[in-house]
Amino acid sequence: MPTSDGGLRIAVHAFDGITMFHLSVPQLVFDEVARQGLGNWTTVLFADRAGSVRTAEGYPIGGIRGPAAAEEADIVVVPSWFEDGRAAGPALRRTLTRAHGRGATIAGLCLGAVAVADAGLLSRRTAVTHWQAVDMLAARHPDVDLDASVLYIDHGDVLTSAGTASALDACLHLVRARLGAAAANRVARSLVVAPHRDGGQAQFIERPLPPRPAGDPIAAVLEWALRHLAEPLPVERLAGVAHLSRRTFIRAFQASTGVTPAVWVRRQRLDEARRLLESTDLPIDQVAAACGFGSTVTLRQSFAAAFHTAPSEYRRRFDARSRVGRHRSGQGPPVPAMIPSGPPA
Question: Taking the C-alpha atoms of 18, 19, 20 and 24 in order, what is their torsion angle to the nearest 10 degrees?
Answer without folding.
Answer: -70
